[in-house]
Fold each of these.
Amino acid sequence: MVSSYQRLFGKILKFRALVVVRSLLYLTAIGFIFQHLYSYGDNDLYAPHAVVAVLALLFVVNILLIPFMADAKRTNALVAVLFISDLAAITCVVLASGGFRSIFITYYLLILVIASLWLPRRYTALFPSAATLGLAVVGATHMFANQQKLGVGFLPREFAALLRGVEPTAAVSNMLLLTLLFFVIAYLAGVVGDNLTLEQRLNSEILANMGEGVAFADNRGRLLYRNAELCRLFPELDAAVDLDDLALVMFGSPYRQSPLGRVACGAPGESFVFAIGRNEIAERPPMEIRATRISPDGRDKRAVLFLLVIDLSPRFRIAAAERSIEKFSAISMMATGLAHEIRNPLASVRSAVQELMSAYPEDSDKRVLADLVLSESDRLDGIITRFLTFSRDEPLALSVGRLGPVLEEVRHLLERREEAAAVRIAVVIEDDPEIVCDANRLKEVFLNLGLNAVQLARPADAWLEIRLRRATLPFVQGVEVEFADNGPGVDPDELGNVFQPFYSRRQGGTGMGLALARKQVEAHGGSIAVKNRVGGGAVFTVWLPLAAEDVQDARQSARQMVNRIHRYKDADQ
């Protein structure tokens, strides 16, 4: 639990640069004033004690306001007001110490640089304008002091004598030169500040959106930064404030007693790698932690501990996918060889059965058994043919055409099927743009999807609707063909398996139809998906790109993905 004191300290730490710089500014001004008092006496400054009191008051207000800036709705506006109060205070100090002859006039430049670096560019013109107003007050006071020489008593005598040494023309020229200098310096500091802010935001965005967890801690053990990915891996670290909290969450022991304690004993720049296994109770994946102590100048006082936490789950998934690909490839080669070897004796068996059939009359029981052997041989040959078609990668015969006539032909073929006699089949064409495709391959795909629907149709009031429309994905023009039916649908637990080889929803099915359909669609650079329809039934959706270059791009992207997997595996090894 983070205490209120820790939260207050965190707010002060957030604005520590502002606190340090402005505090040094005030303390230096007070010190110079006391030096003048000690060296030259009270006559060289007008009301020095009042100036010191004003500066001391502003210094105290500066410290007290900093903790509340983080909670302010307009933090930048509040900081701008503080800087303007600084300019007003410096104007008082400049007047009290000789006006344009004062050594404190350079403080205008310091405040302008600090304010322009700290705040956005929209405030850039505000501060040189306020400084110019302060110069105008100083210049006007010089002129009043010179008029007092003529007998016009605007100012106290000692104060007027202190400022009378600057002539009116010199005061005006000083004002013009300093005003120009103020605006130039404020503009340049604003440009530098914008570049620094942009770089800081870019670094923050990069760290925040990294796929790895990142954390920084200073040499005192205070946790300076943690990104969202680290808090996702370790939700308890959202309230952590130091390395002890971090080590307790990661390793179950304080920092010095944990494996991270070895980092403090190592040389700057030396990396330590720690592994954390999967934690089923805390629902944490296996992780790798890289810890490095970084020192910009080789001194431990400025060392920073850098932690990089890597979720190893994607790496393991890629390795498992690679093993599955290799296993499937080996099985596919073996199965293709077996299919060829089975097909040859199967043809011999079929020929032998046909020869034997001639020896029996048509009404013989043995003739019926021979017909059964022939039909089952034909079915087995069909399965082998579809399997070989699935395993081969034949090139597409691409041409320009429309899918409307193809779908109408598919409808006529389906209506001639005996199982589709009671099914109402409709083709709805909303838009039929020209598409680059292999029409024969796509006809096989659409016929397969249609047969899959009508063979699972309900006995009464069954229907199948085939809808063609234009469908555009980001940056890719395409068409969409939708097969919707009111059949039994797909078991929600099996939606991810319907396109797998040898998976079938129909008794007696081979399970190769949908797998082959997906392969043909992906060869066109398209995609196929299935979902259950509200009210019952299934919806199969085929998306295809219009242009041939999109087909080529899809193939190229697939090849690049496979190459990246191989490179990732080689890098791990």
Amino acid sequence: MRVLADLINALDSTNKTSSKIKAIETFLSESTELDKYWFLRLFTGKRPKRSVKTNLLRQWATQISQVPEWLFQESYLAVGDLAETISLIIPPSKDTIEKSLDQWMQEIMALPAMTEEDIKSYITTSWNQLGQTERFVFNKLLGSSFRIGVSSKTLINAFAKYYHTDSNLVSHSLMSDWDHENLSFEDYIKGEHINANLSSPFPFSLANSLDQELEDLGSSEDWQVEYKWDGIRGQIIHREGETFIWSRGEEMVNEQFPELLIALENINKDFVIDGEIVPYDHEGVMKFNQLQRRLNRKNISKKMMAEIPIRFIAFDILEFDRQDLREFPLKERRKMLEELILEIGSENFMLSQIIEFKEWSELGEIRISSGNINAEGLMLKGTQSSYPVGRKKGFWWKWKVDPMTIDAVLIYAQRGSGRRSGHYTDYTFAVKDGDKLVTIAKAYSGLTNSEIAEVSKFVRANSLEKFGPVRTVKPELVFEIAFEGISFSNRHKSGVALRFPRILRWRKDKLPNEIDDIEEIKKMITG
């Protein structure tokens, strides 16, 4: 635990990527194989489920510290993190204990089978044997919440540097499980026996937002242009008669799209294809909110499959007959993909349409009108490009349509967490509904640090009511809210749901009576 606590302290005390990588290397040099594995799981989101209810942790912490509930709540609001708050209010430890991270995790995973009294005894004893930082880490492990300032890219680069291997191999390895009884951790990281797991996907290749003039890309003949669809990015792995569907979030989503599995039952080829899973009816691609109705369900009824048909729009092939095709030029991969989709012969699988054009100038109007078919814009891909890991500039560009925007007023604000716990960073916005205001969106990004500080000062001086961590404020600050889509929704008071809302800018030039009206906003749905 001490080694992990030192690592977390080091990661949280620097913004330099090189320093973070050095801290991770230090941890790896001082840890056992099993501890390295747990570190990997914790930092890549593959954590065990929560072991103890947070209300019990709060209750036991207040009992030990003899801190009143109201004072604990105020402390929590000031700190912004429950695990850290508990670690701070509990008296300093009297004893010390040394256990490996693996031992801690094994004990924590066994807690659900214990009585509440035994769980309390274990946790309070542990609190009394750990220093403040170690206690904070322990609380994080209990709560199954581990958000520390290190990106997955930094993590991968650190492992690649430490084990003297290629980051692409590390990325691929991390998508499959480690069989520690038959494979060393180093061999696992280096990608040894990587094909042993039939379901292993490839790391996704990602596009950069277009940040230059089209003419600067060179000859239009060297580029393949497709629509950018608003669905779920996915890889379909079909090996030895088994099919696995992976989302970009590294989740296997087979249960949510059974019709795609059925369509491949009699296909005797091995392949990995990349594409977009979209809702698709007789009129074409449906809006994303229809697809949301199918997400995160364990069982999809025949009724739902009929109401929300699914198609996989394939735009790349990464493997065929166990041959890695990622270094092949896109032009060659496209030909192989066309042949495969034709052989599959299912209406659930279709090719991404290549947009025919001669001059760059023709694409502007096509991009603007892409919303008419529920596309987000265009994708530009070099015909000679390989399929790299992550965002490699110059290979793929996404040229999205400009977002929709509305003007709304701030009505609720909540403190942030971690380093932002001293500021109000989580906002709720409203628009007009006749003579009233109706909430329409929450947003957490889009302001500079100085603007956040200015808004926080306004919130403190203009709070009207307090509901736990939330403050109701005078409706005076107007912001322009950008979003990617809008649809009707019975779950929201406004009657509409915005897709990916974020703050575009602070409209200091506008008064509250100039914000948008909900009835006018609803017209954006019907056009």
Amino acid sequence: MNQYGNNGGQQPGYNPNMQYQSAKPPKKGTGIIITVTVCAVILIAFFITAFAYPGFLRKTDNPDTAQIKNDDITNTINNTADNTTDNITDNTTNSDYTDNTTESNTTAPSSEQEADWTVLIYLCGSNLESESGLATYNIEEMIDADIIDSVNILIETGGSYSWEVNEVNPDALCRFKMTDTGLVSLGELPMASMGDAETFKNFVSWGLDNYPAKKSMVIIWDHGSEPTNGVAFDEVYNYDSLSLDELRDSLAASGKHLDIMGFDTCLMGNIETATAIGSNASYLIASEETIPGPGWNYTGFINYICKNPDCSPSELGIAVCDTYYEKYVDLGMSSGITLSLIDLSYVDELSNAFCGLGKVFYNSMYDTDDMTTFFQTMPNTESYGNYKLDDGSMTSNLYDIGDFIDHANGLLGDAGTTYKNVLNKCMLYQVKGDARAYSTGLAFYFPNYINISELDSYSEVMDDIPSSCWYMAFIDGLYDQWDAPDWVESAMDTSGEPIPPEPVIFEEDMTINYNVFINDEGYAVLDITGGLEYVAVVDIKLYDMVNSDSVPMKVLWGSDDTIENTEPGCYVNKLKLEWFKADGFYDIAMHGIEYTPTYNLYTTPILLNNTAMQLLVYFDKQTNTYEMLYAYGFDENIENASNRQGTALKPGDRIDFLMETTDANGDFFYMNIGDTLYSEDYQIITREPIISDIFQDSYSSQFYYVFEITDVQGNKFETEGALVTVSAGVVTDVTIQ
């Protein structure tokens, strides 16, 4: 924020060399008449300003006095509107206001006054604002930026039942201009869904028509999800959203070519998004991973653009990525983030390269060895939003394409090499944390956890990309219960490529045969005797079989990748009776969600200061240490969407560890194992013997180690397992159950 000296209350003038200068002080006058005249002029100017700018939100002159939000973004904004309410009139609503009307409160620049940049922010508040004030938090960041006249920052709000910013009417679409003085209302439109293509198109057209600039950027702020679900989920209209095909069509209908299309939303950094907007924008800024609640660094990148108004779109894109990363370093949440800057001039080449991958995927269905390689590669590929929910399901079907190619043992051949070469050209810049080390910048949709409506939505997204027909045919062959639309077969017929008969991999008699036994060393062994080619992953899960008031209960302690694959089809669980502990005392539930060559990611259910969340845990294989990254939750209103409530852990936070428990009646509930206080200087999670030396003589229980097989179609099932009986701290029996 600029600090002004004794310059008669005037704002410093703008210098093309980006140096701020104080205006010359007025000459001293003499006499009562001059003094009265000056006072009168000041009073008249004050009232003209008050009435000309209804809904004016001024920023404070001293940023040090502003209230700072906590990392969990739950505090109410220090709304400077509270100090200006008396000057705000109620006449900002104009029922005759249309997109063809230039706003009355500010004059749009003429062509001779063309700005350097126009930035349009489509702020769909949804329940992120009504429940947590997250949109308001980012508006506050914009207010704190030092904005110059040649940079237009325009905002449209809607999509939320309530707003913490007093100037936002939740019953209308509101438009604002952010200036260096604060937030200026430009009027209102009748309420409409921000998940409607027409609403989005109108905002883009209005903003760029009325505020022309040399360069343009559009940002969508809200929830994001997979390519099947889209972006901008309007809470008021039953979470209606912009699908990718709607986004593509509305940008084309606006007649505007954007320099940058940005998504301050989760999970939009994928090839489907890039191809959907590719012909309508020059650059894409998006994250493969979820975006935490605090969002982009609006103060940071707006300050950059205002200090460097001549910057190129790519330079601004790099600044957005860098300031975003810096923000989460400061918040202690940088480990799990990603943000990419993609050059969309290569989007056609990228689409053709993905077509080549699709052909390999499709042809792999005719070779069981290729199919096994394909599915065994998937669990070891960087995936996004892939966090465990209460019902045991995972939430994402998004995987990094480049990382998949790298881990597929040559399966993709020349097609993989071609794709990586194009990816390297279009991926101008990316930031990523330690827990996303294998991200290459763009994900793709692979339906691990599916329903028919999702696949129908995906086919609608891809139907304008005929080259995707091979990948769509692969999905069709993969899931017998879904049939691809007619355009897929038609595109394959006209491609000139030979089409094999029905795939052999999914014969009706596809079965996996196995035995589970205890070997001479007393270890449980899974021996797959038939259908090994259909096996994608083998994991172990650990249960504690306990009795509470004589009622038997099955407590899930989680999963891990410590099985030894001694030979093809033979998996040995060496039953070391070691598990994850908190404070060296509590055995806690850890669910493996990603195993990479250098680290594993786990989640564990917790109460964080009495709020139910999941805790993301990072295991560094080089240092053999565990790090608690942050806690997160998921939005029950939107399928496959994070609630963006990523919360950094702070010293003194209370963490209650929970375990999923099923009683004899099949009823599910969480068992509270115990609590601890978080400290940055103390490594809370370790891996140690289940039976501690302190309680060894009195420790008695039964543990159940079970093998979990995931087949090539993504189906999971548990085999028989080893029931381990411990009495007085000693293993007395191991049997197959």
